[in-house]
Amino acid sequence: MRIYPAVHYTMGGTWVDYGLMSTLPGLFIIGEANFSDHGANRLGASGLMQGLADGYFILPYTIGHYFASTKPEKIPVGHAEFKKAEEGVRQFTRRLLSINGKRSATSFHKELGRLMWENCGMARTRQSLETNLKRIPELREEFWKNVKVTGSGEELNQNLEHAGRVADFLEFAELLCLDALHREESCGGHFRVEHQTEDGEAKRDDANFAYVAAWEFKGPDKKPELHKEPLVYEEVHLATRSYK
Amino acid sequence: MNLTLKIWRQKNAASPGCLETHEARDVSPDMSFLEMLDMVNERLVAGGQEPFVFDSDCREGICGTCSLVINGVPHGSRKGTTVCQLHMRHFQDGQTITVEPWRARAFPIVKDLIVDRAAFDRIMLAGGFISVNTGNAPEANALPVSKEIADLAMDAAACIGCGACVAVCKNASAMLFVAAKVSHLNYLPQGQAEKDRRVKNMVLQMDQEGFGNCTVTGSCEAVCPKEISLDFIAKMNRDYAVAVVKGELKKSAAGGTG
Ligand code: FES
Question: Looking at beta carbons, which residues of chain B come within 8 Å of A56?
Fold first, then answer.
């Protein structure tokens, strides 16, 4: 098996509270999909550890508590919010199908992937991130003008499904770059070339960045809002790990 | 390399399908079979045609999602290999390759090369689980498992539930899949409480789904990408016979809510 740096090793995930519930009441997110046990670095079987720890130790209590203290009502599909969401999906689908441009979703996906790999990979610089923050919105704009999605929205359509994913990636990739640019230090999987020690090791800045950055989505093409969650250590203290 | 592909095209379960011929040009021998199909699809989209839909997920041979019959053989003719791990270097330049979906009554076609394998999920729901109390993680030494049993259960658990066994079987029997799932849990101490119920309910569900009977031809074992052994079918038959002989548990006179 070949082991090499890949997108899989990107740190972070969906925000959850201490009971592992997301900002949507009743939606619990466990394992690698949540942000909670992602530190600077989580390579090497941390995914299995987190799945087991969340499943064995946390969820049996928190989900049980949620069920015991909430009475889920039947939500009718005639509910205004449901109608709104349904209409949103319809519009999104119609919009994708009606562009009828010249480039496939795959070609956008590949171009975005390359931008991320080159400029927001293991080692990133202010300059490379700024390049991406300029290129990604342009690519997103082109996507919404020039993507070609075949088939219809009435049956199984993998091409449409993929285009929807790529549309999401085009928003999320920008956030990844924004966060990497904001964090002016090097820390585990986030290596900002500007911030390194003399022998090329990651140089952290605990005075200014000892926090989790929780970015709140405000809608496409709107600036996300940063919420800082300070990292407070009571028993174990921050130290620098050396792999040498 | 250049190849001629005959690919199954079918709008949905209700309409008839047929093989469509497409040329695949400049295929790299290092591509996987699915990457080659991606490329064919990309060109179809570029030309304004609808791409073929096919299932895949991990593309690492571990999830059991990919499901193509290649030149008549589920997952192609490389032994112990899923189609996502099959590479084009095993084909010859100029070759004609037929690509079809799994074919079985219990796996209705959704579209083109995708079939609905929910029947397998329903079989799992009928007994493919154990009951444990959540809360604290159990003490690791509380349930000793011998090496022999652990190995056997692991071999059974290697089944990724792709359904190639059904696709190749002349009777469209799901015995190898069900046997692997039953054996995995019936071997282990954790699975003993529900052992008899499990095998009876899973076999019952299998029959209700419309899978055929097993005539021990062994083609399932031959195409299984995880090389699950026919021995598990023997184990399941034995467990089934024992469960039938034991009969139902007597209901408590006091009744219960079950
Ligand atoms: S795609 Fe997962 S096993 Fe082939």
Answer: 134, 136-137
**Chain A contact set for B49 (CB, 8 A):** 150
Please report where in the chains the tokens 């084909």 appear, as a residue.
Answer: B91
Residue with structure tokens 């690919």?
B7
Note whether A176 and A242 are same-domain residues.
Answer: no
Q: Where among A31, A52, A73 does a domain terminate?
A: A73
Q: Which atom of ligand 1 is nearest to the CA of B85?
A: 4
Q: What share of chain B is helix, strand, coil (3-state, %, to 5)?
A: 40, 10, 50
Range of the domain at A208: 191-244
Q: Identify the DSSP state of B115.
A: E
Indicate the pTM of the whole model: 0.86
Tell me, what's the pLDDT at A5?
A: 67
Q: Kindly list the structural domains of chain B, giving each domain's residue range(s) and its CATH number in brackets, ordered by start.
A: 3-110 (3.10.20.30), 117-256 (1.10.1060.10)
Most confident by average pLDDT, A57-66, A134-143, B135-144: A134-143
Asked whether the beta carbons of residue A155 and residue B11 sit closer than 8 angstroms, the reply is: yes
> Which tokens in the block code for residue A141?
């704009």
- pLDDT band at residue A97, thresholds of 50, 70 and 90? very high
In this structure, are A97 and A151 located in the same domain? yes
Tokens 């989209």 belong to: B45
Contact between residue A172 and residue A165 where contact means Cβ atoms under 8 Å apart: no
